[in-house]
Amino acid sequence: DNYMEEAFKMRNLLEEFLITHGKSKPTILGAREHIFTGSVSSLAWFMSNQETSFVTIGQRVLANQLKVRFHYGHPDVFDRLFHLTRGGISKASKVMNLSEDIFAGFNSTLRQGNVTHHEYIQLGKGRDVGMNQISNFEAKVANGNGEQTLCRDIYRLGHRFDFFRMLSMYFTTVGFYFNSMVAVLTVYVFLYGRLYLVLSGLEKSILQDPNIQNIKPFENALATQSVFQLGMLLVLPMMMEVGLEKGFGRALAEFVIMQLQLAPVFFTFHLGTKTHYYGRTILHGGAKYRGTGRGFVVRHAKYAENYRMYSRSHFVKALELFILLVVYLAYGSSYRSSSLYLYVTVSIWFLVFCWLFAPFLFNP
């Protein structure tokens, strides 16, 4: 799917194959994508913004500073001869190599290829627009990433790369999903630990100990942590990109509008999707391709459909956390200052709310 004026630049892009980038000539030329489905719904807009920051700032840094850009989707141009003489592009297993595009990049890099990124040309792309479509897509990507975690390609790359490229590769492929999973597991560990403290009476004795009364620095530390916990750091690249392309006033306005359209609820919900499918793939395997259709879905999804889709991954877990929070509140309410309790648990309450109600909030 190309635009007329972009097609004229194709000759210039192909000339890049003759230019040495870094140490060698490129084997895959990366180009950026332009998401044109952003105006369909608020969800489509969130997704297109997220994607825009990834295909511009994200891939620019991956390609030029870190040298760990692999292959991310349809605008990339392959050096056909290089790849055909090194075992072709596709891998054999339809389970392990679910994210087929990035495996082409792994192959190329392992065989001394060079992947670049060029931003003077862009190709159109339609992203998923409905809540259930987006969930299917995220599930597919998380499944694929779970399989990447187990695959040999990552293992070999990790052994052959120098220290900095190794870390860059980790945090841009497997590490991103692993960190999401650890974040959610931490919430569980934290709540069960708190529950133990409350039920055993330890928390009461600690809080009523005169030596420990009114530690202001401790309360301040908890307060600042709860601000950063709401994922402010992941918004920064997107703000920077919109600021560069459209001006920082516009970026600020878009940020405010996104908050009003409940973007944090949406992204917190998808943290759950990623974690669930990534963890399940690592435990049980069995990733499969999920056709999302990519139609313009602006229909009302039935409750039964939503429940079937999200019960295992979100609702059950959210209810467990909810029960833990309620028990924790009920058993400790007699001796606790309300502000401290709020600082500690407000982000977890938010998580529970998002996981329980996001599919219904975003149901047109």
Automatic annotation (TrEMBL):
Which Gene Ontology cellular-component terms appear in the entry? 1,3-beta-D-glucan synthase complex; plasma membrane
**What's a Pfam family in this record?**
Glucan_synthase
What would you give as a GO molecular function for this chain, any one?
1,3-beta-D-glucan synthase activity
Q: Does the keyword Transmembrane apply?
A: yes
Q: Could you list this entry's UniProt keywords, alphabetically sorted.
A: Membrane, Transmembrane, Transmembrane helix
Which part of the chain is the Glycosyl transferase domain? Answer: 1-364
BP-aspect Gene Ontology terms: (1->3)-beta-D-glucan biosynthetic process
Cell cycle listed as a keyword: no
TM ranges: 169-191, 315-333, 340-362
Q: What is this protein called?
A: Beta-1,3 glucan synthase
